[in-house]
Every structure is written in C-alpha cells, then in structure tokens.
Amino acid sequence: MTSSTSPSAQHSPHTGAAEPVTPVGPTRQDEVARAGSELIGGPLGRRALLGAGWWTPVRVIALVAIGMFALGMVQKLPCYNGAWFFGATSQYTHACYSDIPHLFAGRGFSDGLVPYFDKLSGDMEYLEYPVLTGVFMEVASWLVPGDGTIQHREQIYWLVNSGMLMVCAVVIAVCVTRTHRRRPWDGLLVALAPAFALTATINWDLLAIALTAAAMLMWSRGRALAFGVLLGLATAAKLYPVLLLGPLLVLCWRAGKWREFGAAAAGTAVSWLVVNLPVMLMAPEGWKKFYTFSQERGTDFGSIWLILQQRMDSPFDTDTVNTLATVLMALACLAIGALALTAPRRPRFAQLALLVVAAFILTNKVYSPQYVLWLIPLAALARPRWRDFLIWQACEVMYFLGIWLYLAYTTSGDKHQGLPQEGYQLAILAHLLGTLYLCAMVVRDIVMPERDVVRRDGSDDPSGGVLDRARDVFVLGGTAAHPSRHAAAQSETGTHVVWGRERTAATGDVSP
C-alpha cells in the first residue's frame, strides 16, 4: 500500500497511473531550515527524507506538535496557579490569559445550563459561539466534577479542553503534512510555530481549524464531497472556513471543474444545516446570538479600526465600521478573483485560501490573538519558506505580547504597569504589516510562478485535487495554460515545464 510518504509511487487523480513520489527535503532547499538543522545534527539524509523505519514525517511532526502544545500549556502555568482567579492584571502581565476558564462559569456551564436553550443571567443572554463549538464546550463540561470550589472546577475545565484541543492540534499538523505529498516536512512549520503554542488554548478555534485542514486534505485527494462535508462542519464551528468556497469557485471556473465545485458546495451546505437546523428550529433566539453579536459588537482589539477610533476626534460608529469592513472585504475578494483569473499560471488552492482568509482578518473589526491560528496551516501550504514564515510569526508574537501588556496597563490603575495606548497601536501595526508581508510573498509567487518553491520541482498544485495539472478553460486577458500531467516526474529527468509547454534541458526543444 502506498502512503503519503512513500518514495515509490502515487496515483494520479487524472489517469490512475502510478507516478514517482520523491519527498522534498526543506534542509536542501531552504537556507534557514538548513542553518537551523545544525542544532539537531545537520540536514536530513536520504533515509530521513523517505521516512525509513518508524520515524516517518507524519509521526515525527505529530510528536513535535504535541511537545510544542505542551510547552504552550506550561506557559499558562502562572494563570493556572491563580492569576485567572485572584488578580485581573497578573494574567495579563504573565501573558497567560485564556477565555476557557472564565467562560465555564460566565456562560453557565458550571451550573449545568444547556447552550442556546437556557438563558444566561446578564447582558449576554445566550452563548455567543457557533453551534458546533458550543457542543465542544458542553461535552468538555460533562467531564468536570460537580463538586469542589469553582476555581478548581475551572482549572479542570481548562485541562479537559486543552486535552481535546491537543487532539485538534495533532490533526492539523498531520493533515498539513499529508496534503502536499512531495513536501511532508512542511508540516513542521505548523508544529513549531511559536504563535501556535502561545495561542492554542486561549479559545476553541482549533476545532474549526482541524476540520478545515482535514477538508483541504480531502480536496487534495480529489474527494470533493468529503471536502464539502468537513468544510460545512468547520463553518458550524467558526464562520471563516466558508470563505474557502470563494477561491475554489474561481479556480474551478478557470479549470472548468463545475461538477466538483457543485459537490463541494452542496456538501458544505448540507452538513452545516444538519448541525444547525435542530438548534435553529428549537432555540432560534439562542442560535442567532452568534450572528447578532458579531454584527452588533463595536470596534475591538487588534484591528485597524481600533487605531482609527483611538486617533480620530469623531470615530466611526458601529454601523459605519460594519459597512466599511464589508466593502473592503468585497473589494479584496474581487482583487483576489481577478488575480486568479489573469495569473500566467493558475494559482494553487492554498495560495488563494490564505489570501482570502488574510483579507478577512485585515478588514475585520476585531482581531483576537488566537486568530493567527487560522492562517498558520494555510501559510505552511501556500508559502513554505522558513524565512518568511518566521518574519510573520515574529510580528504575531509581538502582537501577542502587546495586547496583554496593553490590558495590563488599562487594568492596573494608577500603577500603569504595561504598554500604553501608543505602544499597543505599534503592536497592531506589527501584526498588520507582518500579515501583509506574507500576503505579498504569496502574490509574488502567483504573478511569478517560477519563484514558487512548491512548483520548483515541477509540481503544479499538490493541494488542488482535481485542479492539479488540469487544463485551463477560461483565462482573462491571456492564453490558457496546459501543465503537463507528469510535471513532477519530468522535473526529475531533466524536463522543465514552461507555462503549459515542456522544454527538454538537453536539447532546448519545446513540445506542445
């Protein structure tokens, strides 16, 4: 049986024929990875590349992900030992805040209230999370003992959720590892991402991210319906995954893969309805709280809108910000669509997925520090270069520290411990510029496909499924490209793909 790490063969989704698969070693292509590998004995050898013995890339990366997740839990230790409960400021100065213990009591889980059905005391009234995330939170609460102090029960609730989220983290790392068959070691970008470890247990985002990563793995295997079902479940846990249907629509339009897109869209709609419809019908007020809360909440932390609000004499009201954010997001999507339809070679699915999700993050009126998790798997697939990834991660770590120090400053009274408003605005700018830098690198790869490290070995779109090596049927303002069905194999034998033609290195001849 052929695995994703097998050196021998993989089956083409187009022809069913076996094609050679030789894993790409990042330490042989990436100067930063090569330099960093000296800490563990130098660049990977051939046996390590092929995953000889028990230590396959999937197993190594899964273990690394578990180790980094555990380090992230250790980083929360000061809060676990009391900062969550006995001092609002100390949980910020230690940068170990988490929503999870606070919402155990704050959203009625400690009292056995049923999300969406039972009304909460206070202004919130109902749980403000999508249905599948609410189910995740409820299941975790069942594993918390009913006796003991509320502080002890909140600690247990955080531990239970952390264990469940660790499973999600491993799923994410493994799915990314298996999505690009020739580049399994790119999964280390996810497993070793500093921001991943720091933010993984702030909230419940990893559930939606794991389902999205699994969906992209299914699409890369040509399973459009399974992709749609998983994407619909991810959207039932967090809103952002549905954005991936936009890039898929444009790419399937360019390649003429309407049947596959239809299956994906139908699977998404049906699985989302299966999860949401029962709650929608039986508890409509509780169900719609997530959507009304998202619309009604004001400008919040981490967004460009907050900088404008803090620096303007007459800041925008919430309705104006909603309108402006929606318009900017629509314009960004139109620009990304135009880029996809005019690029000299059809962009890879992961590239457009990253650009759309990043556009949503950049234009949104709130940026919680754990939202960086949405982009990490997409960044590993779209731009697997350690230099660019670490530049972006450094900016996100700066923001992670900045928001907690700013909250420490605002909650410490006259002591003013932490970061003042101007310093926090610089932290927001670091996040914005870091994300824009990553997007600029991806756009450059799309405009100049020869710069794309994933395509350097002759691959077309390893995460593209039916789009991989498919012919274009619609291109705006250009000639349709026809990438070879055996591009990766030919690159090993000296044949190079030149935008739909093949040039033999020995003779320079070009064949159609």
Give a verbal description of the structure.
- The protein is mainly α and 512 residues long.
- It is built from 24 helices and five strands.
- The strands form two sheets. It has a three-stranded antiparallel sheet. A two-stranded antiparallel sheet has the order 1-2.
- It is globular.
Fraction in helix: 55-70%
In this structure, how is the largest beta sheet organized?
3 strands, antiparallel
In percent, how much strand structure appears in the residues?
under 5%
Number of strands: 5
Task: State the secondary-structure class.
Answer: mainly alpha
Residue-averaged pLDDT, rounded? 87
Task: Please sum up the structure shown.
This protein has helices at residues 26-29, 31-36, 46-49, 57-75, 77-86, 90-93, 99-106, 131-142, 150-179, 187-191, 194-199, 205-220, 224-237, 245-255, 258-282, 284-287, 289-296, 304-311, 318-342, 349-363, 372-382, 386-411, 421-447, 487-492, and strands spanning 10-11, 18-19, 495-498, 501-504, 510-511.
Present the secondary structure layout.
Layout lengths: L9 E2 L6 E2 L6 H4 L1 H6 L9 H4 L7 H19 L1 H10 L3 H4 L5 H8 L24 H12 L7 H30 L7 H5 L2 H6 L5 H16 L3 H14 L7 H11 L2 H25 L1 H4 L1 H8 L7 H8 L6 H25 L6 H15 L8 H11 L3 H26 L9 H27 L39 H6 L2 E4 L2 E4 L5 E2 L1
Antiparallel strand pairs: 1-2, 3-4, 4-5
Quickly list its features.
3% strand, mainly alpha, disordered C terminus, two-stranded antiparallel ribbon, 512 residues
